[in-house]
């Protein structure tokens, strides 16, 4: 679980190093290509057998998948890794709290809301566009969870996810062509983008499959709540992105809300 989390955030950090050459759009395009190759190899979807009823959620999932990564990486470019991942994390947290009816979950929602207010408080240096992109990534992640459930109900194994990743990669194919024709990327920029795809898509996906066979889902979900902290640490150590006490407090509130909600659930 630690390896998966660190790999995901390290991949995002390395991808950001290619922003000056490829921009967030180019890095996300390469990440989508890598994700498609990995998922197609694992899921091996039989596309010709898909019905229109199965294709509809797959196409929606592909659109959400691409939008989620593009909005997240664009947010990272503007507000840094730690804050962007924290705002994105509100997506699954909202899904979890919306389905609950306990008082403790209401308290968790208040704690998370306080954290968000702290992160997005008005300041002369506040980047509202970057914050908005982080929130958009959260909406996309919530939609991604719901659509994945629907796809999983209509298609066996990882076929639906693999097909969605392939469609998303095709959507970003023109981006790659334009980038190569307009301005060929440097070897280092291409390497950073590929590393982002491998570390943020391939490694976490395979590691999570391996982990969920041995770790209870509740414990796995509890550890997932630490990802915003891992992102902030990776951003600090790897990219020199320093956060003030208010930002750390906001991140801590969101993490605490998710952790408390999961830890107090009955199995």
Q: Give me the strand/helix succession.
A: HHHHHHHHHHHHH
Structural class, from helix and strand content?
Answer: mainly alpha
Number of strands: 0
State the helix count. Answer: 13
Give the overall form. globular
Beta-strand share of residues: under 5%
Mean pLDDT: 86
Measure the end-to-end span.
Answer: 20 Å
Report the sheet with the most strands, covering strand number, pairing sense and barrel closure.
none
Give unreliable regions as ranges: none
The portion of residues assigned to helices is over 70%
Radius of gyration: 18 Å
What's the short story on this structure?
The chain has about 270 residues and is mainly alpha-helical. It has helices at about 1-15, 20-45, 50-80, 80-90, 90-100, 105-120, 130-155, 160-170, 175-180, 185-210, 215-225, 225-240, 245-265.
């Amino acid at each position: 679980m630690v390896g998966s989390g660190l790999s995901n955030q390290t991949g995002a950090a390395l991808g950001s190093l290619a922003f000056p050459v490829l921009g967030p759009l180019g890095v996300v395009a390469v990440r989508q290509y890598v994700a498609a190759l990995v998922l197609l190899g694992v899921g091996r979807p039989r596309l010709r057998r898909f019905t229109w009823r199965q294709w509809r959620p797959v196409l929606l999932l592909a659109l959400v998948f691409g939008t989620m990564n593009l909005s997240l990486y664009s947010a990272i470019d503007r507000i840094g890794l730690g804050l962007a991942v924290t705002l994105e994390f509100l997506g699954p947290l909202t899904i979890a709290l919306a389905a609950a009816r306990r008082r403790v979950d209401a308290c968790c929602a208040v704690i998370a809301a306080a954290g968000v207010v702290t992160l997005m408080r008005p300041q002369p240096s506040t980047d509202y566009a970057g914050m908005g992109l982080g929130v958009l990534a959260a909406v996309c992640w919530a939609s991604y969870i719901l659509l994945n459930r629907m796809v999983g109900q209509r298609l066996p194994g990882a076929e639906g996810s693999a097909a969605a990743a392939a469609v998303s990669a095709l959507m970003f194919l023109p981006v790659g062509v334009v980038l190569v024709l307009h301005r060929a990327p440097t070897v280092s920029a291409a390497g950073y983008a590929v590393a982002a795809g491998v570390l943020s898509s391939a490694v976490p996906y395979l590691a999570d499959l391996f982990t969920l066979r041995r770790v209870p889902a509740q414990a796995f979900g509890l550890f997932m709540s630490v990802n915003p902290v891992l992102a902030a640490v990776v951003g600090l150590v790897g990219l020199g992105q320093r956060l003030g006490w208010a930002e750390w407090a906001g991140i801590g509130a969101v993490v605490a809300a998710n952790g408390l909600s999961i830890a107090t659930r009955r199995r």
